[in-house]
Structure formats: C-alpha cells, structure tokens
Amino acid sequence: MTTPAHRPPPDVRVHRQPGDGWVECACGHRHWGLNGAAGLLLWRSGPAGTEIVLQHRALWSHHGGTWGLPGGAITDGESPRAGAVREAAEEAGLPTAAVRLRADRTLVHPDWSYTTVLAEAVAPVQPAVTDPESLEVRWAGLEELDHLELLPAFADALPELRTMLRRLVLVVDAANVVGSRPDGWWRDRRGATARLRDHLAHLAREGVAASAVGLPGTSWLPDVVLVTEGAARGVPAVDGVSVVSADGSGDDALVTVVRRLMGDPANDVVVTTADRELVARVEDLGARAVGPRVVRH
Asked: If you write DSSP's letter for every residue of 128-195 in order, what string do you get?
C-alpha cells in the first residue's frame, strides 16, 4: 500500500476537456494529450535582447518544478495552433489579440506529437499565473535559460527554437511571379495579380513549409509584401498582404522595400523572383531569394 509520504501529489488540473489523458507511446514513454499536445513560445524584443514567456511548472505536474512553455493537450477537433493559443490564455493569461503567430515546430513520435507554436507579442503583454498548473509565469531573457532547470523536452528543442525567434517577411515580385506561368495572365494582368494576392493571403494565414524557404521548424506564417507595377498597379491590400505600387521601376521599388525591412534584425527577408539581376541586388542587402514556385497559386 502506498503511504501518504510517497503518494504523488493530486492532479488539480482544472481545464478538463476532450483530449485530456495519457498516451502510452511505442517510443517507450507516456505523453499527455490523446490528440497530441501543443505549447506557445511567445517572444518579444526587450531592452537587453529577445525575451520569452516561461512557465514554472506546478510541483504536482509531470516534471514538476521545471521551466517550460505554457501548453497542454489538444482538444477534439482543434488544431495545434489553436490549442497552443488557448492553453497559453488559460495558463498564463496571454491575450489572443496581442499574439501574432509566426512559425511552428512539430516533434513526431510513433503515437503522439507535440507542436511548439512560436508567436510574437505585438502589444504589451503581462503574463500571470491564472490556474493551478503554474508556480510562476514571466518574461525571461534568453541568457537566463542557461541557469534554469528546464523541462527536458524543452531543453532538447531549445537549440533549434532559438533560431526561430524571428519573423519571416516574403517580398513578392508580382510581375515576375505572375509571368512565370503561361496561363493567359497577359489578357488581364491586374486580375492575375489580384488572384496571386489572394493566394498570398492564404499562405499568410495557413503558412508555408519551412523547407521551401530554407528555415528551421515545420512551417512559417509570413508577413507578405506584394510589389506591383505597370497595369497591375492599384491592386488593393488585404488582410495579411500589404501592397506597394511602383511609380516607376518595379525592381527599384522592391529593392527599396527590402532595404527598409532589413533595418529590423528580427526580420528574415525572403524575396520571391526568378530575375537574376534582382536576386543579386537583394542579396547584396542581406536578403535571400527563392523562386516563384514557392508562392505561385
């Protein structure tokens, strides 16, 4: 019989929902979340460098007393991104409106998966303990992580996650991308550009594969800047896609946009074009370039 002194602390988790439960995985370990689990890595640029929100886990929890990310089980029918945001709101009081999703990284086991969703704080955020699953929740500088006892899985993922604390900005050469496919675009250049814009808005919402843009992790949700010229000028912006209409040379306008964006070290600027001369110009500024296929609808 288990004595009181050796009985594990009670599970006082309050957010009981479909999806809660342990999975006995073929990897030899058990994991929390019948549908998998997800956590939110929220970052911001602080006065002394990048800071992230950390959760000091309650002693009764799995690996209690360690530091990790707010997160938990994904409920039935919920996406990992939605689950991470919901769990962060429940456990750390992080307001959804202040969170801009930037990327994700999924660790896949034989019978379970864990998705780390990386997000930027785009408004002032003061994290707080909002349920019994945390001892403390606070902003921490990256240099502090070397002096804290981290949740083992978080410690294992941290080297790659550190490289993902940035935002992807796609700068799209509209004329080059539209012209890369012979689908009759020349009959309605403006309409073809509008269709490209709408597809880019979908990519901004749903994400692009990390491998397609040469980045770590699984997928990235980019900020998108569409540069138009000539007959396509005046195509309006939509949510997720800003539009720059060139008064003259589209290439010159795109280079000006890239130069401005490169002034923020948190931006990873990727230009989509097959124009070799333009590629050389933006690479001279420190940006990278990929072909039109990455964003073509």
From this structure: ---STTEEEEEEEEGGGGGGS-B-HHHHHHHHHHHTT-SEEEEEEEHHHHHTTS-SSGGG-HHHHHHH
